[in-house]
Structures are given as structure tokens and as C-alpha cells.
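Re: export button greyed out
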Amino acid sequence: MPTFSTLLKAHYEITPDKVSVIILQAGKPDRPITYRELIKGASGYASTLTKNGIQPGDVVLLILQHGIDLLYAYFGAILHGAIPSIMPFLTEKLLPERYRSDLAALISVTQPTAIVTYRDFETEVRAALKPGEDSVKAVLLSDMVDGAGTPDFDTLGGLQRKPEDIVLLQHSSGTTGLQKGVALSHQAVINQLSDYSKAIHLSDSDVFVSWLPLYHDMGLIACWLMPILMGYPLVIMSPFEWIRAPYRLLQAVSRYKGTLSWLPNFAYNFCAQKIRDRDLEGVDLSTWRAVSNCSEPMRWDSQNAFSERFRKLGLRPEAMTTCYAMAENVFAVTQGGIDGTVLYEDVDRDSLQIDKVARPAIPDKPTVRMLGAGKPIPNTQVKVLDGKGHTLPDRHVGEVALKSDCMLSGYYHRPDATEKAFIDGWYLTGDYGYLVDGELYITGRKKDLIIVGGKNIYPQDLELLAYEVPGVHAGRASAFGIFNEATGTEDVVIVAEVDSDDPDEKQKIADSIRVAVTRGSAVALRYVHLIGKHWLVKTSSGKTARSANREKFIKEMAEKGQEF
Amino acid sequence: MNTDEMKAKLSEYLAKEMLKQPNRTIKPDEALLTSGLIDSFHLVDLALFVEDNFGVHIDDSELNASTFDSLNGLVALIQSRQ
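Workaround output, generated via the alternate export path:
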């Protein structure tokens, strides 16, 4: 069984001159990096970690923007045998104090011994530390790290790691997400890559093109580890640049003859709606063979809009593919649209919503178009369970459960959370869905999670921020997501009870909630809805019942003529 | 179009299209990006709106709070290019 380091060593020895990663940065020439450069750059980081007393098996936190430093630091930690974990960079929206407290919380759970960041950011990082009390032994600045060095594979700690050792941690964002790091072993990741690459028929002509963030499984696994470890070229740009210039993705596919990309659903709408023709002159998308919709609810309309808009640039309709994935299974659970076009079906809406059974459409009755997420990848078994844990037959909606040889080792330092996630060796996903002849359709979510643009957001984090606003009482706000057909992702809504009836006062409170939530979580609220006392629906234990409040909000807005 | 008219036009657009609060007025010095009033999904729209209505191109590398974070800043940027 190989490990990350043995794979890297093989690339260095067998194909050192092969280009591994091409980094695109606005206003700079594209930067190709060969395996030789990558391993040598990473070796500089590995020797710096050694000099600073960082041990193999220690967690190393990386707080760096997408670029060459992050590339070298990530694989440097791997070669040293340490466990890298990427922490999102501070954005202009987030309050520095909030970032510091998130960072401190992350440190207290994951116990990193080193943090790698930029000199400009050192003060921020140090402000979150408690010297002498916390686990951090070294803050390493990217400009102080040893230069590229020739790797000594006999002494590098990474070569001593065993397949079952933890190789990396992955966190989702926010206070809740940062405290629940998914710990993955070499073996789990390599099993996933091996089977997923079969499912997508990876071949020598493939070129990956990505703008995805690396602190998310879709970016980290599919568009970082898979190409780099398995030896396929990766063209990468930063999410911050892509969101401001989405046409760059298509230009990159054209320039580098890209074949594979993964996108959250909103990106299909975003590209279809917001790219101007003048930015697409000469662009040829005919090489794109699989553009996989993944990481938030997938819509046929979104894929269709994208496919229609770019068909004249050579985009093939059959390149539209789907994928259902989660960090706990390393990445992919299912993949659709590779062996034949993506499946979709129109089902009877009432049967689906009331009876929880996906029956074929009935003439003259409302229907819902369901997009298939594909069939499980070879090593992963999927079943659908009812509330009592019994397996449901085809077409019956229940909780999706899975079992594979690429499951997480556990939530890092959180045995309590790990234990809760499994039942008889099956991982409970918290998603609702149904199966038809092995094809999985995802219908909704059991867990109270908001997904915006592929990013998971825990509503309780947003509610806690709202409670900090004067005029909002603890326990009297509810946060949830509502799918927006136009943007292809969820809008975030907060409903809060306030005592005041004065419109000016209410506007002030609404604005304060907006600012508190954005600056505390970097999540922008689409609607802040203030209501009087006793509006919110509570559960028997006194907690806010988010899905009930969501329904009530939608109904109330519909009465005012606002449709969702 | 004078400065106040430009601010009014931008305020109307942001309130209606981005905040979904058509009756709201955005104050000239109110923070737009750092406050989360405009999130990153909307930056491309704002750049297109400015281009279509004021004939000024804002490069994607300029779509951040260090270039402008209020209507005052945005209008100053537009006027400097007209």
C-alpha cells in the first residue's frame, strides 16, 4: 500500500520534468511547476519543520492564500510526516477578532504544533496564541522557510508513515465546523482516489482545471490531491479571483485543453448568467469531457443553462456530470454521467413531499425534476434507511447511509462526534434521498445545515452572532437557507423576534444583525426578517425549530406576494 | 449626471437588486463590502451595472474594499475615469 510520500517520491524519481501544477494569478504570467520543483520546494518546508522541532504525526496549520507557498507548505508537511490542515484566510468581511477566536478554537481542538503563514499575517496569528499554554511551538513565516532543497528520502519522516496513519485534516467553516475536523488516513484517501479515478475513467489525456477552495473536500481531494498524487496536470486559480472574473475558468480550459472540472451548482448559473461574450472570444470548450456538479443540491435547470449558453463554444452536452460527495468518505460517494448521460426523472410532487415516495409524474399534476447523482463508486455501498434504521426499498425517501473502505478515521480529537455519526458501521449522512436501480437521487437534508455556493454553514453559528445585537434576545432567532432558482444556491435568512414596533428602530436592528453575522462569519444574509414576540416555532425542548420557522417564513412572505 | 444623482441611482440598484429592500436608501458613507451588504457573488453584477450605466470599466482585480467600500468611494472611482 503506497502512502502520500511514496507517491511523491515516485513522481520525483520517474517523471521529474513533468508539469504537475500550473498556477494562474491575475496580472502575472502563468506559473508551471514540475514535480522536481514541487518536491524540492516541499523539501525546504520539511527541513524547516524538522529544525523547529515539529514531529511527524503533529498537526501543522496552514494559513496561506492559494499559490506556490501553499503548494510547497502542504506537501512539505506531508514529506515531513506531519498532518497538514488548511485554515481559510481572513477575508475583508470577517472581523479580525472573530477570526482570532475561531483560530483559537481550532487550535484548542486540533492541537497543532506549528502554524505556517505570511509575515504580514503574523501579528493576527500570534494574537490567537497563548504562549506556554497552547500546543503551538512555532509560527513559521513563508519568507523564512528554507529554500528548495534536494530531498533525502532516507531521513524524511513522511516515508516512515504507515498507510493507516492520519495524513490530513479537513474542516468546514464557522465555529462549529472548525471544531469538527475530518481526519483521513493515507489508506482512506488512496482507496478513494483509486476507485474514483476508475469511476471517472481517468486517462493520460486528462487535464484538471479548478478554482475551488482547498479547505473544502471538492477542491482538496478532486482538484488538488487526485491530480498531484496520481500524476495528472492541474491548472489552478484562486476562488477569490474566480468569483470576480468567472470567465477565467473557461479561458483556462481552452488554453490548457482542460478535460475535468468540479463545480458547485451555483457556479453553473453564475457562469451562464454573468460572463460576457467579449471575454469568451476564441474560447474552445470542446476538450471538457466531465464538468461534475457537486457539493450542494444539484439542479437540472442549472446544468442545462450552462450547457446551452456554452454549446456554441464547443461544450458537449454529455460533459455535464453529477457527483454526490462528502469529506467523511474522503470525497465521492456516487458519480453520474460518465458512462452515458446524466439521468433525470420527473416525479409526482405530492407523492414525494407527502408520502415520501418518488412516483413517476402523473399527467396534469405538479412535478419535480430530479437529477440523478449517479451510482456509488466501486468501493462504496449506499443504502436508504427509515427513521428506525431499516433499509427502504427503491423509490422510498429516507436517510442516505454509506459504508466504504475510505471512511474517515474519526473527527479529530472528537470521539463523541465520531461515535454519533455511525450506526452498525454505516455512516449516516444527514441527507435524504432515494435509490432507483442503484442510481441515487438526493431530495433534501435531515440536518440543519445551510449550503451556500458549496460552502457548509451551521445555522447555530449565525444565530449566536445575531444574539449579540442589542434588541435581539438569546434563543429568539432562527437561521435557515431557502433555495434560489435564479442563483442556483441557497439564500441565507435570519428571522428574529424583537420587542420594538418602531420601523426606524427595526431597520437599525436588522442592519445590525446583518453586520454582526457578516463580520462574524463572512456569510452575507439575503433577508433579515424581524417579527414580534412568540412568532418563532420552538421544539419541545425549547430550541428553535428551524425547518418549521422556514416553512412559516415562506408562507408569510408568499402572502405578501414574495415568492421563493 | 451629477454626483448625487449617481449615488441615488446606485443606491436604488443595490437596495432593489441585492438587498431586496426597494424602499431602502443606502447612505453615501455606508460600508458596502466589509459590512456584507454586497457579497462576493454580486461583485460581477455591480461591475457590469457600472459599465452599462456610467460607461466606466472596473477591472476584476479592483473589486475589493481597498478600492471602494461605500457609494462615496465608488462614485469617486467612476468620476476619476469618466
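The domain at 1-15+23-161 of chain A is CATH 3.40.50.12780 (Rossmann fold). The button fix ships in the next patch.
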